Input
Amino acid sequence: MTGPRRRMRAGCARWIAVFMLALLAPAAAAEDVMPTPSIAELLETIRTRVQAAAVYPAEAREQGLEGTSRIEFQVDPAGQPFAITTIESSGSRLLDDAAMQGARDAAPLPHLEARIRIPIRFGLEATDRQASAGTIVGAR
Output
């Protein structure tokens, strides 16, 4: 084969190769992509990490203080929490401050374009450290 027929056959072969790659590429790409966590999963990750980072103040433990502090904050793109406030006190300034410090110490956190509200539980029993998931307040 020479001339135009050879070029035509080579062109067809290239077209078939491109077509086959186009068919196979989405399947390969789909396997490589990690599923994006849901907002609820991200919120639970944040709450769990802040709860784990919150240190029960020795003074509060000695006084037998327990309670749940609800904190609100935002997370910047680098994972640093900011604008941390107590929105519902545990009844103890020591516990409230420890909850806010826990948010700082848990960084870096997953970034969310919203204000995050989470409960941080301080209890003398190990099982008291469990708390419900938080909430998202007004996405930015």
Observations:
- The first strand starts at residue 67 and ends at 75.
- Residues 127-132 have pLDDT under 50 and may be disordered.
